[in-house]
């Protein structure tokens, strides 16, 4: 005789088996959720400090930095001071040290003034690197160089000379005497003339003037050059802020003087397409610069590189990069050659940055 | 094995076999359909991949065509042809280098869909944009490209002869063949197009559109195929391009379903190999589910069968138990009652009724048997006495005593005989005659009788003592209140093909009320004979007794009539009913 209880037992066993399968699924889901929340809590924080918060060039750099952080899987935190001085950057660095961030990447307003704060950060185990505008070699582990300063400096005078058919007066409006990059580029600009005296024999290079990366000051310096040197043919200005100010001043003065330098396509497009006051100019991709900085920080953070010359790493979609010795005795990694923006491609690039 | 177990096991076995066959058929069908679907899907998938590959190569070709037809690039490489210097012009001409780089970057920006765009000529002039090669890596890659200049030019010639309308050369290679570090060795695919001045019919250089093979695989979603399917990519010469770590020639073709496609314009070929086992593997899980579900269904059905069968069989089992316990000693024992099922209840009720009737019948039979035994005991003594009386009468010369003793003895033997309870009408008439003769001796001239019997009826079967009770009633009731001479007449004849026996007297006769009561009693006793038969003693309700016994023997069709005789007395007629024709065939 088949026992009632045996049947009930078998059915209950089946039910338990089925329900246990379901329970396992639920447990897996919970576990997965738990893991996600833990990984979110422990996500590293990569901080970027720009030169100035409203600077459009710097804002594009932030875009690239944030994009790379998203790809890497870290939290990006971008900050910028309200002016182009070292003090507010120091304040931000101190706060980031207190927050115990994992990485500080900084576009320096002063190469040496940030040293104490950045050394303090490195002593606490924070990865420190500079980008665009370098801090001194003792204040960083690595510098992200937009382009080789020699190439930038030489191409600026080559281009200006070409624009005025290798004959005429050339003025320079730079930012400040402390701006590392600008100083380096102008050094190489002058070196190009020294190296090719025959080529530049009809070129008169005026002493550089300082616009402090401020619109008003740059306008004043432009007006000064126009007034002081009526024979002026072209102005070179290796700063995105100065480029706009110079272009606007020349437009307002109905001047025939040309200008070139390093600027943002979206800001200079009208001077190429309409005013024709800027035949072409140069700049690297600031988005890529921020992107490369984040991947460099990641390589330092996870131990793939130490920041020594010869270290190699892969920077996302930018590919393979090799660290090299920089002119100041530290190390750097290059983004690449600058891009030339002229009437052929300005339409494309002005929509990008 | 018990009745319940037999039923449950039988039904369960049938269901189990049915389910097993069903599972087998269902599984085979599902697998068959699944395999066909998988093959169709495989073919469609490969077509889709082929389309994606063609699209990908088209995009490379479009990009290459745009770069190769850019007048700035054509002019630059035209100038470089004329200078004939075998150093890389772009190494030392910063402005032109940045110019060329910007041109290439602008083609690729802003999405950088092409891994690397390079332009170069046979004099070592080289410029590229995209994934950058720096320092020692860059120098080595340049060398590699310089070394391949001659091949490129030869390839160009081949490409022109391909007749596709597109001039290109397509191949795959390791980008950094020199590298000692595999981490930085990229497998790439390159499409080469000539930088040509069509008017001069001269080629000044080559545009190389280069894609990382890993990006290419991601684009055509090869990494989403899983471990069970592999796409093999072959070039024009059927050299395997992808995958790098799985040789198609060494593949065991019997273990895989393989479908082929061709990207005709570019001459590349595709093969999709899907592991046969992987197609059937998913169905193992389904089989598991089918078995599990079937198991639950079978268990549920068995449980249902068990419960239903138990409900059906329990009353039957109880009935069986009750029947087994019935003996002649406990026939009246009550059966187990079960109200759960109408059919069983009715069966039980019918069985109970049958048992009750059987019980009564047995009681009746017992009593009749005792009476018979009892009635056979006494006559022996009486016969002896009658023999003595007869002997004494003979000695004394009184023949009447001898005659009386002889008739009385014959009557007693007739009444006491149980050898054959049924006799003929002739026997009954003879017995009635003996009785009437004895009554004649008693009442002498006060009584007379007459008997008329159709000879054909004398052999007709009928119960014993049919006539005597009626005749006794004449003397006990009919003649008591009337003056002699009393007369009884017996007629047995055939009328309208039906026999009848008529007994008439000239006694007091029955009133109408008495006749009705008599009829009622006949019906009542007829319906419930076993309960009332003891009241029907001969001499008591003799007429009813006679009628009922006739009906028992000859069937319900026996009719009777009781009516007044004229001028007085009673006529009782017993006759064959209309539906009883078959019963008296012996007459």
Please provide a written account of the structure.
The complex is a heterodimer of chains A (353) and B (587). Chain A is elongated. Chain A has helices at 4-41, 56-72, 86-99, 115-123, 149-163, 180-195, 215-228, 240-252, 265-275, 286-301, 346-349, and strands at 45-49, 75-79, 103-106, 127-131, 142-145, 168-174, 203-205, 209-210, 232-237, 258-261, 281-283, 312-314, 320-322, 324-325, 331-334, 339-341. The model of chain A is unreliable at 13-40 (pLDDT under 50). Chain A has eleven helices and 16 strands. In chain A, α5 crosses α6 (180-195). Chain A folds into two domains: 45-146 and 286-336, Rossmann fold; 149-283, Response regulator (Rossmann fold, 3-Layer(aba) Sandwich). With 353 residues, chain A is of the alpha/beta class. In chain A, the strands form four sheets. Chain A has a seven-stranded mixed beta sheet, sandwiched between helices. In chain B, the strands form four sheets. Chain B has a five-stranded antiparallel beta sheet, with helices on both faces. In chain B, strands 11-13-14-16-15 form a five-stranded mixed beta sheet, covered by helices on one side. In chain B, 54% of the residues lie in helices and 18% in strands. Among the domains of chain B are: 46-275, no CATH class; 443-584, Heat Shock Protein 90, CATH 3.30.565.10. In chain B, α10 (379-396) runs antiparallel to α11 (399-416). By secondary structure, chain B is α+β, with helices and mostly antiparallel strands. Residues 134-141 and 581-587 of chain B have low confidence and may be disordered. Chain B starts with a helix and ends in a 12-residue tail after the last strand. Classes of the chains: A alpha/beta (353), B alpha+beta (587). Chains A and B meet through α1, α5, β13 and β16 of A and α1, α4, α5 and α8 of B.
């Amino acid at each position: 005789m088949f026992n009632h209880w045996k049947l009930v037992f078998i059915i209950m066993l089946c039910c338990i088996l089925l329900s246990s399968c379901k329970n396992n699924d639920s447990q897996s889901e919970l576990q997965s959720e738990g893991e996600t929340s833990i990984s979110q809590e422990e996500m590293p924080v990569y901080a970027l400090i720009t030169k100035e918060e409203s600077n459009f060039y710097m804002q594009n750099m932030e875009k690239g930095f944030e994009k790379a952080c998203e790809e890497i899987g870290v939290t990006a935190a971008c900050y910028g001071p309200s002016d182009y001085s070292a003090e507010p950057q120091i304040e931000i660095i101190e706060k980031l040290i207190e927050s115990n961030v994992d990485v500080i990447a900084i576009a320096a307003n002063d190469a040496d003034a940030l040293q104490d704060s950045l050394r303090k950060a490195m002593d606490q185990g924070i990865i420190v690197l500079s980008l665009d505008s370098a801090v001194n070699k003792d204040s960083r582990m690595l510098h992200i160089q937009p382009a080789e300063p020699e190439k930038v400096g030489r191409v600026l005078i080559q281009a200006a000379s070409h624009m005025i058919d290798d004959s005429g007066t050339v003025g320079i409006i730079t930012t400040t005497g402390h701006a590392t990059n600008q100083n380096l580029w102008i050094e190489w600009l002058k070196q190009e003339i020294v190296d090719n005296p025959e080529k530049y024999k009809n070129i008169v290079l005026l002493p550089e003037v300082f616009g402090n990366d401020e619109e008003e000051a740059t306008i004043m310096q432009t007006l000064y050059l126009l007034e002081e040197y009526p024979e002026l043919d072209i102005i070179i200005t290796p700063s995105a802020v100065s480029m706009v100010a110079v272009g606007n001043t020349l437009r307002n003065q109905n001047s025939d003087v040309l200008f070139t330098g390093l600027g943002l396509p979206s800001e200079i497009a009208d001077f190429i397409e309409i005013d024709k006051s800027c035949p072409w100019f140069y700049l690297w991709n600031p988005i890529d610069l921020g992107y490369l900085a984040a991947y460099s920080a990641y390589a330092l953070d996870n131990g793939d590189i130490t920041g020594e010359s010869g270290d190699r790493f892969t920077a996302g979609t930018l590919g393979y990069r090799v660290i090299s010795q920089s002119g100041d005795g530290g190390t750097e990694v290059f983004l690449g050659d600058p891009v030339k923006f002229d009437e052929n491609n300005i339409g494309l690039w002005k929509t990008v940055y | 094995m018990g009745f319940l177990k037999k039923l449950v096991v039988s039904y369960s076995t049938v269901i189990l076999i049915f389910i097993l066959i069903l599972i087998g058929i269902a599984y085979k069908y599902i697998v068959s359909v699944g395999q066909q679907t998988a093959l169709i899907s495989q073919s469609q998938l490969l077509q889709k991949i082929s389309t994606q590959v063609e699209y990908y190569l088209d995009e490379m070709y479009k990009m290459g065509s745009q770069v190769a037809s850019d007048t700035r690039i054509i002019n630059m490489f035209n100038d470089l042809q004329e200078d004939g210097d075998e150093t890389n012009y772009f190494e030392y001409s910063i402005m032109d280098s940045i110019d060329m780089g910007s041109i290439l970057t602008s083609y690729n920006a802003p999405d950088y869909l092409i891994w690397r765009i390079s332009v170069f000529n046979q004099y070592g002039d080289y410029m590229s944009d995209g994934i950058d090669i720096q320092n020692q890596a860059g120098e080595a890659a340049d060398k590699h490209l310089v070394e391949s200049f001659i091949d490129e030019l030869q390839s160009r010639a081949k490409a022109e002869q391909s007749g596709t309308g597109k001039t290109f050369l397509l191949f795959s290679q390791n980008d950094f063949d020199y590298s000692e570090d595999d981490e930085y060795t990229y497998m790439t695919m390159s499409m080469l197009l000539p930088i040509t001045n069509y008017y001069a019919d001269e080629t000044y250089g080559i545009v190389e559109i280069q894609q990382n093979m890993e990006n290419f695989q991601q684009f055509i979603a090869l990494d989403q195929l899983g471990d069970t399917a592999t796409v093999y990519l072959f070039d024009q010469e059927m050299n395997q391009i992808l995958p790098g770590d799985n040789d198609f020639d060494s593949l065991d073709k019997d273990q895989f379903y393989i479908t082929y496609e061709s990207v005709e314009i570019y001459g590349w070929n595709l093969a999709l190999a899907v592991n046969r086992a992987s197609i059937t593997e998913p169905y193992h899980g389904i089989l598991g589910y089918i078995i599990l579900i079937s198991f639950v269904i079978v268990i549920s059905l068995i449980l249902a069968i068990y419960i239903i069968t138990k409900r059906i069989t329990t009353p039957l089992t109880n009935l069986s138990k009750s029947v087994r316990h019935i003996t002649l000693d406990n026939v009246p024992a009550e059966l187990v009652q079960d109200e759960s099922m109408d059919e069983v209840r009715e069966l039980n009720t019918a069985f109970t009724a049958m048992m009750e009737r059987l019980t009564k019948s047995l009681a009746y039979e017992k009593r009749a048997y005792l009476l018979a035994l009892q009635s056979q005991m006494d006559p022996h003594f009486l016969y002896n006495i009658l023999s003595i009386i007869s002997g004494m009468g003979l000695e004394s010369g009184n023949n009447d005593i001898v005659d009386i003793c002889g008739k009385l003895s014959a009557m007693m033997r007739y009444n006491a005989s149980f050898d054959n309870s049924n006799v003929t009408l002739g026997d009954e008439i003879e017995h009635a005659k003996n009785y009437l003769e004895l009554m004649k001796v008693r009442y002498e001239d006060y009584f007379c009788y007459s008997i008329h019997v159709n000879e054909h009826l004398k052999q007709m079967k009928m119960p014993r003592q049919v006539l005597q009770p009626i005749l006794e009633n004449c003397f006990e009731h009919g003649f008591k209140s009337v003056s002699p001479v009393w007369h009884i007449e017996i007629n047995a004849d055939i009328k309208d093909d039906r026999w009848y026996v008529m007994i008439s007297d000239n006694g007091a006769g029955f009133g109408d009320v008495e006749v009705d009561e008599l009829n009622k009693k006949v019906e009542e006793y007829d319906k419930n004979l076993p309960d009332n038969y003891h009241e029907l003693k001969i001499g008591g309700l003799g007429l009813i007794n006679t009628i009922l016994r006739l009906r028992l023997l000859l069937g319900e069709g026996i009719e009777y009539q009781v009516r007044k005789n004229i001028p007085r007395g009673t006529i009782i007629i017993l006759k064959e009913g209309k539906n009883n024709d078959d019963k008296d065939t012996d007459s």
